[in-house]
Amino acid sequence: MENTSSDIRQLNEKIHQASAFVDLLTMELGKVIVGQRYMVERLLIGLLAQGHVLLEGVPGLAKTLSIKSLSSAINAKFSRIQFTPDLLPADVIGTMIYNQQKNEFVVRRGPIFANFILADEINRAPAKVQSALLEAMQERQITIGDNTFKLDEPFLVLATQNPIEQEGTYTLPEAQVDRFMLKVVIGYPTKEEEKLIIRQNLNPEASSPIRAIIQPSDIIEARKLVREVYMDEKIEKYILDIVFATRNPEDYKLNKLKPLIAYGGSPRASINLAWAAKAYAFMKRRGYVIPEDVRNICFDVMRHRVGLTYEAEAENVTSENILSEILNAVEVP
Amino acid sequence: MHKQQVIRRIFLSCLLGLLYPFSLLAQQAVDVTAKADTNSIRIGEQIKLQLTATLTPAQFKDPNFKIIFPVLPDSLEHFEVITRTSLDTVSTQDVHTLHQTFTLTSFDSGHWQIPPMRFEVITGANAAADSAVTLPIGIDVNTVAVDTTKAFKPIKAVQAVPWSIWDYWLYIAIGAGIVLIIGGLIWYFRSRPEKAPVVNTPTISPYELATRQLKTLKEEKLWQQGDVKQYYTRLTDILRTYFEHQFNIAALEQTSEELLQNIKPVTKLNQQRDKLRSLLAIADLAKFAKLQPTADEHEDCMVKAEEILEWTRPKAGATEEDGTAAEKQQA
């Protein structure tokens, strides 16, 4: 059904009201998380667009605190899994254990049965554990023995990767990385922010605890509205142009990128770019997507979906460099 | 008495008959010699040994006559052959001389003989082979007199050869040649006349093009026919293309917000920033949110676009400056 002008105006008003919680949520998280607004914003995009977030950053950047605070602010269940080389799939999803009294096998649910999962250092566990988690992320259900369990909504996985220690790690395969809607690279806080962090940590009593601002059901309602955010055909074409430019750069007069790109974005990239743009528009309290929304989230959606050739690596060309070139070449509608 | 005379004549005839072939051979004989330039050397010194064969003009012209010089191995008994020249011919009116020179040395002290050298001579139509032999040559090879009463002296150290520029003349010449060639090439490439850059003089200025396009857009009456989205798409495209050509701002690849940021360095355009912002905001809503602006808003946007064009209209000769300034700022 095609949206009319008045429909969009109504939707815009509706979203303007419904998205008010975003500012409240951000403020509430700001009580305990100093700086890192970018990471918090990306977490909310993942939450609203039903995607998962892969976070890359050195230790100590408040990754755990962020997701823990987010779950407290939404009154949702939080679970943290530290990935290690000896971790087994059963340690993540759960297993069947034998009950001697009842003389039967009963299901013991793993830590994945929560709303917010922090998969810390996901690349430290072998591929079978990564697969178990990523399958759950995709299907949003778990099968233990003969029983299949739907995971509670909202369900958000925040996986972290440490970019500096690569020894003894199991790098996520491209197909697995593609399942993450966003790959966010976070950096150190500024001097001013770090000063506040020190003060806050030296005097923890001074900061008030996180209150539950909204309920998980509100997030589910917000997701419905995100789905309704209007995306014009011109924006769809813009998204497709960006994704196709990663696959066939020569079609966009970017022949110099051809030897640097091993593979471009998959159709999942287009889908996620559209979803994330809608979620971003929602957070900006708009009922329609504009090119700024696409450009804003483009790097986080696309950076892990553009494969680099050896030539690019030898020349220290990053996927961000390639995406910048593409965004500067593709015409904005 | 008569009987004795007859016997004597018969005897003489037989003797002449026997000696006749020898006289013929004597006519064909070749004079070959081996001559050394010295008969006495010290150990390791060199001797020039010249082998010579002297032919008569008849022998020299005779196609069936051949003389083969001896082939000396690298080493003779007590002598070593160091060098050998090729065969040389010296011709005069009466005689033709073939000669070859060998350089020999010896490291054995004593009196030694250079052995006789055998030349092969082939004559006649039936290729009769004969040989001519030189006389042996006696050579005294003397050792250096050593005073054994004196103490042994150590081996002399390596002696530096006096340096001479002529030892390196070839390398110097090659180096100088390369330098000259490189210098010549550099001079050639620097001094050759540069191709005059092809200047594509636009037949129409960006301002004129944008003005014409706006006029056409007005005449098409798109918003009056309900095609509001197309109207604003065209309107913003005209402005973006104008900015791109006039001010070198990549406006077609920038979002509205980015464009408003990037016009800041272009003072003249920045003065129209508010108008441009308002126009782009309405255009974005019309393009991406299906907003239906009022007729006044449509007209107002067109007026704003025309005003922006008029304000930033380049004076004659100012186009390049503005564009370059903007480009520098962008860089």
UniProtKB/TrEMBL annotation, chain A:
<dbReference type="Pfam" id="PF17863">
    <property type="entry name" value="AAA_lid_2"/>
</dbReference>
<feature type="domain" description="ChlI/MoxR AAA lid">
    <location>
        <begin position="259"/>
        <end position="326"/>
    </location>
</feature>
<comment type="similarity">
    <text>Belongs to the MoxR family.</text>
</comment>
<dbReference type="InterPro" id="IPR041628">
    <property type="entry name" value="ChlI/MoxR_AAA_lid"/>
</dbReference>
<dbReference type="InterPro" id="IPR011703">
    <property type="entry name" value="ATPase_AAA-3"/>
</dbReference>
<protein>
    <submittedName>
        <fullName>MoxR-like ATPase</fullName>
    </submittedName>
</protein>
<dbReference type="GO" id="GO:0005524">
    <property type="term" value="F:ATP binding"/>
</dbReference>
<dbReference type="InterPro" id="IPR050764">
    <property type="entry name" value="CbbQ/NirQ/NorQ/GpvN"/>
</dbReference>
<keyword id="KW-0547">Nucleotide-binding</keyword>
<dbReference type="Pfam" id="PF07726">
    <property type="entry name" value="AAA_3"/>
</dbReference>
<feature type="domain" description="ATPase AAA-3">
    <location>
        <begin position="52"/>
        <end position="182"/>
    </location>
</feature>
<keyword id="KW-0067">ATP-binding</keyword>
<dbReference type="InterPro" id="IPR027417">
    <property type="entry name" value="P-loop_NTPase"/>
</dbReference>
<dbReference type="GO" id="GO:0016887">
    <property type="term" value="F:ATP hydrolysis activity"/>
</dbReference>
Automatic annotation (TrEMBL), chain B:
<feature type="signal peptide">
    <location>
        <begin position="1"/>
        <end position="26"/>
    </location>
</feature>
<feature type="region of interest" description="Disordered">
    <location>
        <begin position="312"/>
        <end position="331"/>
    </location>
</feature>
<protein>
    <recommendedName>
        <fullName>Oxygen tolerance protein BatD</fullName>
    </recommendedName>
</protein>
<keyword id="KW-1133">Transmembrane helix</keyword>
<keyword id="KW-0472">Membrane</keyword>
<dbReference type="InterPro" id="IPR025738">
    <property type="entry name" value="BatD"/>
</dbReference>
<dbReference type="Pfam" id="PF13584">
    <property type="entry name" value="BatD"/>
</dbReference>
<keyword id="KW-0732">Signal</keyword>
<keyword id="KW-0812">Transmembrane</keyword>
<feature type="transmembrane region" description="Helical">
    <location>
        <begin position="168"/>
        <end position="189"/>
    </location>
</feature>
